[in-house]
Amino acid sequence: MATRIADLPAAARPREKLLERGPQALADAELVAIMLRTGVRGRSAIDIGAELLARFGGLHGLLHAPAAQLRGMHGLGTAKYAELAAVLELARRALREEVAQQPLFDSPQAVGDYLRLWLGPQPVEIFAALFLDNGHRLIAADELFRGTLAQTSVYPREVVKAALRHNAAAIVLAHNHPSGVAEPSAADRALTAALKSALALVDVRVLDHLVVTRHSVFSFADRGLL
Fold it and tell me: Regarding beta strands 205-212 and 217-219, do their DSSP bridges make them parallel or antiparallel, or are they unpaired?
């Protein structure tokens, strides 16, 4: 029979360990256990946390886990899923705040992490844009188009209208590849060129186009494709 957290010595219980030694002292499964609070018959919250991490490949994979797969995990249940989903959303929003609080390219890692959390887990292609002011600070992050599993239809005129609506001086384009392969297609390259030309007509600069998956980001700017 699995050991219950309540049967562990006080110093080994995740919550008590966190309060005494700080969150950095906890293993990943113990941190997840605190979010879950309780286990199920025969399995402690630590056991469930460890299983979640193993199933999704660690904390990074858990943050990117599709909602349907999380809900299907034995031992979560509706209440535990809701608590975990809330924590994951807090992580996404915290990254968005970090992105918004400074010029965008002062924190390229945060931008990539934010986009992977936002777009990476989506089962269909989503085309989005980060609208920036003259100082390259984030004004808004909008989903503009949503497509099928394989592709989406992006209309340059609508992207231009959105940029003007936000009074943006610059823009970062982004979309996900549900296939898990971040390398852009020929259509992605052609679309980027068309959008760059359309936005130039209204003096909005395209700073980058990021193609994201759950685990990686492809930057047009870094590859010299803009």
Answer: antiparallel
